[in-house]
Amino acid sequence: MESFKLWLEFEAVGGEWDRENDFCNIRVDLPDGRHYGINVWTYRFLQTAVQADAERKKNLGGLYVIPPDLFVKELTRECIHKAIHDLLKTGDLEKVLNHTVLGTSS
After folding, report:
1. Distance between alpha carbon 72 and the CA centroid of its chain, in Å?
2. Which residue in 7, 17, 34, 39 could disulfide with 27, CB within 3.0 to 4.6 Å?
3. Strands, E, within 1-106: which ranges?
């Protein structure tokens, strides 16, 4: 299995993050030069997003939510690293994740 580098917004930016009810951006860099920017939500944040849309009367009052690229149990390096590692065993991230995830080469 090839290795990868993982940049996590919550580590780089700091501040207060709810590891079980929040969202962040991550970057995955592969040794072959491909890079991925991925929007990650926790499972609990999905309900938070629906409630926020209902309160703000967005997306037909919470009738639908445009999903992120990846859902995880919690926003921790360990959880996200395990998820990406497992996904890479399955195939290229642009093929196994949401169709909006595009890999770019440097």
Report:
1. 7
2. 7
3. 5-8, 23-29, 34-42, 70-72, 103-105
